[in-house]
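Table S2 (text version). Query chain:
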Amino acid sequence: MDKRPVSVSDRTVSGDLKHLVTVGLSSTSLAACHGLAGLVLGELGIFWEVDADTRAALLDEVLRRVVTQGRGQALELVAESVDAPGKKHFFFVAAAGELLRLGDKADFVTIWEARRNGPNAIKEDWKTLLKKAGKGGVMVERRLRAGIWLGYKAAISGLRNQGDSFAALEVAIKAYLVSGEVAKDLRERFSSEEATADGEGASSTPQPEQEADAHQVDEPSWGQRFSDAIDDKVLLWLKGIECWVRENRYRVGPVHDEARRKCRIALLAVGVMSAVIVATHYAKEIFVHREDVPLLSVGHVPPQADASPAPPPSQQRVTKPPQPAFDNTHGWGPERQTFTSAHPAPYAVFNSITDRVPHGDERNFMQCHDKEDRHWDTSLVARDGHAYECFLLFSNDVAENLGQGNTAAQMHNARVRAILPGPSTYNPGIVGHLSADNAMAVWASCNFLAARPITITYLPKTARMFTNRTPVDGLRLAETYADGGDVVDGLVGQKGALLGTSSQDGVLRQDAGYVLFDVKVALDPK
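Corresponding structure-token output:
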């Protein structure tokens, strides 16, 4: 069995929270929580690089706000039965706060008195419970305080329920951040410096458009539209039911049998309702224009995906439009077996997961934008003389448990190539092509539209690769030039450029990343 420690960049949200329990909340420890940062930044729509100090301050504020909110809601319910389905979630959030050293003395006194005087009252005093908990210092006391919030009187109960507490906290964070006002406030305070910074930091990664047109209304995200249809408290209610069922599944008797029957009926009803609403909103999402390109260093990609594969690059159609009509031939290919985040591939395969959050279908993995704005898309109106930045996602979608130490699950001689159209072409497409010796080659494209023929040229030395293990400003892809200055080997060469995780070694493990490069557009004279 592989006993290597999990690296900082590989930790999940739950793993980050466990780490914080051990080391405490500090700027250094919070800055290292990449899984938690990915969750918060993704929910907020902050898709550009955020420095470590700002990221740490953001996580600290979100954790404190969510725990305080959950603790307050728990105290409002303290007079009711803790075992009631849908209610215990708030107590789990409060317990998570105690484990993370985010407890409040006055609130704990309130819950302690309630536990001492309510049903199944705790008879022992605090010193007696601490003595029974044994040695362990502050950590044992925190676990005992967490157990008290959950209705227990032993420190071991706080430890046993740590997983559920962190799962409840994660759900609460998501529910908290879907609020439009909350997200707007946090974005304004924690992303303004990075969004307006000058220099390479402001343009090294894809960013959402900074200023909307005066005639446009900001398009709500899928999560916002979903929250409009399903109140975020449904998520909390469902988590509460899950926690209650987990604790009561072994209890017997007619009362518990009836309660379990009602829970199953409630879950079925909510499941059917949620499925209908999710299907409706997801169908709409495919056709809703998105202008944000998430930061792929935390594993997210833009969600536009064509409904059908495009022809291979060698068969890509370019036709002169009758009058000024557009002939948009962008798409992806080839048709291939797909997978989900919950059930990834059992072998090395490029970009085949269809429900990557918040991206959706990975098969359409290329977008571009005019460098004078932040409008990312797979079809763009070509502007004469303008430079465009292009974005190309790559991901080895093999299951994580198969990828560790298994060379067969790694991609070898993994390459990326940008295939540019010939000169003076109508509505040309830039084709992004991914290949490896042991994986199927895949492609996707971005089209440029105009009533006149278009010539697209690559701007040398602009191709950079970004992964979790490259520098913040990426790794420049190697290029070779002819005497006349034309690129003969590299991203736009015949073989393309080697990919990798931290270097261009051609080995792509169970990892994702992206490539950015610039092109210049010229329209033929009228």
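Notes on Table S2: The CA atoms of residues 90 and 334 lie 47 Å apart. The first strand starts at residue 332 and ends at 333.
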